[in-house]
Amino acid sequence: MPKLTLERLNKLVSTLLSVDSTSATSAGEETVVEQSEQPPVKGMEESLQTDEEQILQLLAEHDHRLWQGDVVAKTGFSESKTSRLLCKMENNGKISRGQVGRQKVVDLPDSDE
Predict the structure, then answer these.
(1) In angstroms, rounded to a whole number, what is the distance separating the alpha carbons of residues 102 and 80?
(2) Crossing angle of the two packed helices 79-91 and 68-75, in degrees rounded to 10
(3) Which end of the chain is more exposed for a tag (fewer CB within 10 A), N or C?
(4) At what angle do helices 51-61 and 79-91 cross, to 10 degrees?
(5) How far is residue 100 CA from its own chain's centroid?
(6) Residue 96 is inside which H or E element, if any?
(7) CA-to-CA distance for 52 and 69, rounded, in angstroms?
(8) pTM flag (> 0.90)
(9) CA 46, CA 55: separation in Å to the nearest integer?
(10) 22-42: pLDDT as tens digits
(11) Burial class (CB in 10 A: 0-12, 13-18, 19+), 69
């Protein structure tokens, strides 16, 4: 299955919203659909975030610290996807994680570091 990019999504939405008219020539023949060029749906780009951006925003909204299980619950991502994302983000220095008992806590580093 091809990856759904913002450009592809905008094109699909534009196509769906830009149908001006349909006309059938005669019974049993193909229907002709005319389309007009429409700009992408306004505000769509701002509403789409990467998975990492969703996690960073979530941490920012919760005092820069959440249990990893809460990240799973609040994002709707699977445990394995969340773990992979957090590991990648930790390796890139975007977050830090620590073990507290049997659970992990995820921290968003202060911006002044």
Answers:
(1) 16
(2) 120
(3) N
(4) 80
(5) 29
(6) strand 96-100
(7) 16
(8) no
(9) 16
(10) 444 445 555 554 544 555 555
(11) middle
51 and 85 Cβ atoms separated by less than 8 Å: yes
Which residue type sits at 23? S
Lowest mean pLDDT among 20-24, 49-53, 90-94, 103-107: 20-24
Rounded to the nearest 10 degrees, the angle between the axes of helix 68-75 and helix 51-61 is 120
How far apart CA 75 and CA 25 sit, in angstroms, is 49
Query: Residue 29 has which token pair?
Result: 């023949």
Residue type, 66: L
Hey, what domains does the chain have and what are their CATH numbers? 51-107 (1.10.10.10)
Nearest Cα neighbor of 61 from 72, 51, 53, 69 is 53
